[in-house]
Amino acid sequence: MILSALIDTARQGDTAAIAALLAETLDVDHLQDIKAVRRGDRLELTLVGTSALEQGDYIQSIYVPLAYLEIPGIKQVRIEARHGDHPRADWVQQGALQSLPLPEHPAFLQPAGLSGPAAANPTPAKLLTRSSSASTPAQVVEPHRPVRRRLSLFVLVGLLSGGGSALYFQHLSHQTQLQNWEQQKQARQTRLARAEAAARIAAQTAPEPPPPEIPSEFLFSSEPTLAPEPAVVIKAVGDIIPGTDYPRYRMPQDPNYLFRSIEPFLQKEADILFGNFESTMTSHAYSAKDISRGSTFAFRTPPSYGDVIKSAGFDVMSVANNHSFDFGEQGFADTIANLESSGIQATGRKGQITYTEANEVRLAFIAFSYFNHHNNMNDLAAVEALIRQADEQADIIVVSVHAGAEGTGAVRTRNQTEYYLGENRGNLVQFSRAAIDYGADLVLGHGPHVVRAVDLYQDRLIAYSLGNFLGHKTLSNQSTLGVSMILKVGMDSDGTFVNGQIIPVALDPNGVPYLDNHFQGVVLVRQLTRMDFPFSPLEIDDMGHILPGKFIE
Known about the structure:
Strand content: 25-35%
Shape: elongated
């Protein structure tokens, strides 16, 4: 059986073919046998070695083919490793299987010299020096060598250490893949022959009868119970500046470069995609700001970029932030008009409630900031009135708020008023909880330019800051300023939080997002949540999945 036939058989859920394919992809000397059994929506793999098997050697080589195969009905994977005749497992790894948008012909199945369609090269890169302020434009310097494009193949790796584990994407360059192929060519041919032989035997035998049910007392109590399917799924990101042409031109040569690497993760499995547009979209010539002062910046994005943002999948954008009036009332009005002409609902005018619908559920978006020319978060009476007005017509109310101190020192969330450069930036905890008390169902924070903790209040999710998402040659990516995420939130039709996920993102030297190969966003948000909200019922697993505690046994 050729490899393509083996893959097709594995895709149909044939456990012998799955085991044979994994045997071909694994490259570890001590592996003796792989057994695969299906129990409902869970695939159970048993690895048998001649000696103890190192966990890290296997997790990375198992998740990629399983995610690529997208076997119908398989939602969970359990991996157990044993060696010799030992009755107890050396280790067990289990969890939900997340389908990943991998290449049509992944590199782990390609021989040397064969690759998929070449990805378009980004704009010739210029490196940015780090800036100490979250809003400070970074200095542009010529690099000593070009920044290489990241490939679209990501390998899921599980690492266990001490009291916790971290799961991250290991990224392999094409050059490294070719080198590894040459070094392992002979071993790979041997494994392929073994896999094909196993597949031939599997094809000649009748399907296995379904395995007997395992009594519940023998199942691991730590295995998560799956949450119900949400009625609506929202994806949300933080601050977006596609670039500026004021006071000098800092726009990309190829506009599609901005979202090319991250676009599949924005559009997949989302009913609505939300972001904060922290620039203006206007041709108005005169800025309302005095940018001669070192801490004052004005951003102006050409109106044509509305189509670029829409093509990336965005449905709703907040324009209630500290840069929306960089070019005065005219610039603010132009920004809203240009976004809406591209098919994006812009929300942020004072008194504005933006309505939309998904899956027969009516949603309302309301954007707040700490300025009086927007809906002011500090005027709680007005906040209550606006939310209760929205509640009369909407099933779910989503509140966006631009507030909080800025920079690498602003990652912590406290129930107190925050200040930045002497300016009152509001109390995010007080506002968010009050908004939910008034009837809001989801609070999405942005403004600090760093990710912050998440929390659950009255069964409603609060994300205190989504961080920087795109700042092409405008926003600093120093330290935690370059750690970002796509927040995926599933809700019931009444706004109750069902489940979510932190999809980790990082910013390249140009301030452009890509999928984070170290899961920094997951690690940071989980750590901040434990520190700032130690009694939160939320559980964040290694893959970034967020579940309310009642779904974790």
